[in-house]
Design goal:
The complex is a heterodimer of chains A (433) and B (259). By secondary structure, chain A is mainly beta. Chain A is 3% helix and 40% strand. Classes of the chains: A mainly beta (433), B mainly alpha (259). Chains A and B meet through strand 6 and helix 2 of A and helix 2, helix 3 and helix 6 of B. Chain B: InterPro entries: E2F-SERTA_domain_protein, SERTA_dom.
Amino acid sequence: MPSHRVPSEADIISTVEFNHTGELLATGDKGGRVVIFQREPESKSAPRSQGEYDVYSTFQSHEPEFDYLKSLEIEEKINKIKWLPQQNAAHSLLSTNDKTIKLWKITERDKRPEGYNLKDEEGKLKDLSTVTSLQVPVLKPMDLMVEVSPRRVFANGHTYHINSISVNSDCETYMSADDLRINLWHLAITDRSFNIVDIKPANMEDLTEVITASEFHPHHCNLFVYSSSKGSLRLCDMRAAALCDKHSKLFEEPEDPSNRSFFSEIISSVSDVKFSHSGRYMLTRDYLTVKVWDLNMEARPIETYQVHEYLRSKLCSLYENDCIFDKFECAWNGSDSVIMTGAYNNFFRMFDRNTKRDVTLEASRESSKPRAVLKPRRVCVGGKRRRDDISVDSLDFTKKILHTAWHPAENIIAIAATNNLYIFQDKVNSEMH
Amino acid sequence: MEGPESAMAVVAGLRTPENVTCVLPRGTMFARGLKRKCWDGDEDVEGAPAAPSYSLQRQSLLDMSLVKLQLCHTLVEPNLCRSVLIANTVRQIQEEMTQDGAWQLPAPPVAGRGPLDHLVSTEILCRAAWEQQGQRPAPDLPSELPGALGAPAPGSAQSCIWEADSSRGHRGSFPKSLDQIFETLESRAPSPVEGLFADAGGPYYDLDAVLTGMVGGKSGPGGGDGLQALAPAGAPPPSASCKRDLGELDHVVEILVET
C-alpha cells in the first residue's frame, strides 16, 4: 500500500485465493475492491531470486448498495473470490458480496493497431483530402495494459447473506450458498438459478441451524458438501434429486460429554470446509480445531488438530466480545500432507499430517524481513515459560488471521492479517518437510 | 476490564437508535493483566473474589445473550448465524433452568443482587420509550448499581412492572417469547407492500423497528402510556401492527422480567 494512505477499515482483506496455476493471487477487501497479484517469472540470471508477487491489477468489484424495502445497507465487502479454470488467454474470476455474484474477465493488451485510414493516432477523424492511399493497420507493441471487465452479474438470487461460492469441475456451472439456501448457476445465464438446497423452516421460529460453508467436489461434478452451524457436514449428490435436501452422507462427530458447556454448540459450528486436492478427504475448521474427514467414514473425523485449546477456558469472555463467532478458514497444501489455519495475535498454524508435528508462526512486520526464516512461536499456558513465549492473556484478539491460502503446487502461502497481505515462500527445505 | 455492570452501562447510554452501537464492541478484551470479565478459568487474578455460583454465572450468561440478541442496531442486516447460535444458547439455558426448577417467579423487589440485575435489563429496554414520553425511568435502584443507569424514581412504576409480570403465565411463555424474536425475522402480518415481496424475507430485526417506533413516539394506543403499552396482552392482538409490535416488545420485556 502507498505509504501516504492511512489504513482504513475498507482496506481490511476479506478473502484470498490463488488461481489454479498459482501464477495469480487475488484478494478482496471490505471496500469492495479486488487486487490481483502476479508472480514474476523466475529469472534465469538470478535463480536465487524466487518469483515474487507484484500487483497485476486492481479494480472495484462491488459498491455499497441500499435495500430500500428493508432499510438496510448491503455491504460491498467481498466475501469470496473463486477463479475459473483458464480456458483461453484471458483469466476469469467470480467475486461475491452478501447478495450479488459477478464474473470478471481479465485480459492483457500489449499491442495496439496503428495506421488507420480514417482516424489519426489520437483517434480524431482525418481530413479526407490528405488521404492519398490506403493502408492496412498493423499491430505495434505497447506497454502492457491489464483490462478487467464485468461479464456477468448474478443478482437477486439470495435473500440471506452469501457465504460461499464454488465452481464446478464441469467449468460450466457454479454454486452459491447463503445461510439457508444453495443455488446452482450456469456461468452464462444470469437471470435464472436453480435452488438445490433449502433448509429454511416453514416457521422461522423453528430455525436452529444455518449453512456456514459449501464446496463442490474437485472431480465429481455431481457431488458437493455443505457445513452447518451445528457442526455437521452433508455430502449431496445432484443426480439423486433436483432438490438436495436429503443428504447422501451426513458427517457428524458425537459430542464429548466431558467437554460439554453452554458454548459447545457455538464452538462446534463449522466455519470452513475444503475438499483435499485428491478429493478423498475434507478439511473443516471449527472454533478450536481443524479436522480431517474421510469421505468414506461418516461417524467421526480421522484426524483432529488443536488450534488453540488454551482458549477453551476463556470461552465466556470470547462469547462476550463476540470473538467466539469469528470464522476462520483452513487450507490444504498441494500434496494434501500439510494443513493450515489462522488464529489470534496474527498467528497461524500448520499441521503436518504425516509427522504429526505442528508449528505456530506469526505474520507481522518484525518477523517478515525479506528472506528471513519465520521463527516458530509458542503460547504458554502457565507453567514453565520460555523466553519469547506469549502468555494467553497477552494475545491480541483484534489481530486475527481469518483468511489464508496455499499455492496449488508449491510451498507458497498467502496470509491476510487485517489490512496486510503476507506472502511467504519456501525455497529451502523447511522444518515441515 | 469491565464487569457485567459496565456492559449494562454501555446499554444505558442508548438514547435514540441513531447513536446506538452494538453492545459489546469487538476487541475489547484481554488487555494485559486486566481482570477477566466472565468467570473464565482459574488463572491467577490477585484479589479476585471467589468464583460466583453456577446459577449466577448461568443467569449472567442468559442476560448477556438476550442483550446480544436484542440490542444490535446496525444499518446492515445482522449476522443470521450469530443470532441463531445465540438464540440456541438461550434455549439451552432456559431448558436447564426449567429442569433445575430454577425457572421461578421473580423474587420481590427487595431481594438481593440477582433480581436487580434483571431489573436493570428491563429498565434499560423500557427507558428509551419512557424518556421519549417524558416519564422518568422506573425502578428504584440501589446505590451500588452504576449511576449511569439513572436517578432513582418512585417505586410505583417498578411495582407496575412486577404486577404486569405476575399477571402473566411464566414458564410456558418463555420459548414463545424467544420465538417471537425469530418471528420478527419475517413479518407475520405483512403490509400490502411487503406482501408483494413475501418471498424476499422480512427485515431481521423488526424488533429494532419496534424500538425505533417507540422512541419516535409512534407507540400505538395513546402516546403517553409507555407503561400501559408494556402491560401484558397475552397473545399479541391481531389488530393494528402497532399493537402487534408492542406485543412483541412486551414479550421481550417478559423474558427479562421473568428471569
